């Protein structure tokens, strides 16, 4: 199939590495946008860091919603490629792009209108809330290009060409790294400078994707970016992507409530600790997500082609790789939590509080790897509901567990322990679920000797 990479032949480990390395690097690049902003804004002060941290929960929620079309693209295009159905692959690509644009405009308009009431949830000082509102309303203008880029990334991943999103997103990151200090300090724009830099960088990324698809690649024989939506394709995309988006959006909503608790018991330092610590933790999360996305694309093609043994081999190989990295991150956070946090928040009070968060969170990193890797398996075989159920149940339990632990005398650190305990439970239960359900899933699939 034109412009795609065949994943149903060749050594499994080599195929996984070739596919996962660019995806993982792309995930790190996307994470680096936020980390770069925080590293520079942290030099302004902990209050500014708390403001963009509060907005970070909403951008996380927005990224979760964009997964409708990222996961929808990866699985629908990947399975169509594996089944050698180029017509459906083109239709799914066009539908995902069209839907991502519609969703981004509706969601962005809603956030713009409700910026004040949403950010007042944190009950921060009025000037911090005002800074957060201004920052949010600026980056909302980048939502259409961010959602489109997410869909473009999914299309390339599903086609087995994960290196293209890496190169394009790397270009955007380099631009963001250059513009951040220029706008924040050179032009004295403060947090608004970080917002402007991100908007410009994301717009460039989207333009590069369009240029690549229109003038350099003829992926899937070419397809229109915008199309008249058909029920058959739209429903399939929502069936695949909506559960993933729903549990990630719920996760972001729960973290918004957890941020409110952190602000209640720890003030703006508590909020800053939780939001900045979560971004640092993304080192582990994005690594696992990179491997899991590659695994999902690999499994989608091989499962559709009936190559069962390759699917099982890929899962075991990926679990081994992600578990080793999770263990290394655990050691880093537990042993050097203060030092890592001080890179982003140089104030003594801030990095001591952040170091405590990372030490507690460090115990759960390997279990996070188990959860996200197994998510990739479920997505690849088209079963997105089990990860959604597991995530929704245990993420929701974080709230009462945090309140209980805070009330038991642990103070704000009770919130960090609630996160650690529920993350550990999710990893163990989802891995067990797939282990038990795998035989039934594969018994319904066509098997190629």
Radius of gyration computed on alpha carbons: 21 Å
Number of distinct helices = 14
What's the main sheet like? none
**Uncertain ranges:** 445-449
Q: Summarize the helix and strand pattern as letters.
A: HHHHHHHHHHHHHH
Q: Which structural class fits the helix and strand makeup? A: mainly alpha
Mean pLDDT: 83
Give the amount of beta strand, in percent.
Answer: under 5%
Q: Describe the global form.
A: globular
Structure notes:
- This protein has 14 helices and no strands.
- It is an all-alpha fold.
- The protein is globular, with a radius of gyration of 21 Å.
- The C terminus is likely disordered.
What does the secondary structure layout of this molecule look like, with pairings?
Layout: H1 12-41, H2 46-82, H3 86-113, H4 115-119, H5 126-139, H6 143-158, H7 163-186, H8 191-216, H9 231-304, H10 308-342, H11 348-362, H12 365-380, H13 385-410, H14 413-443
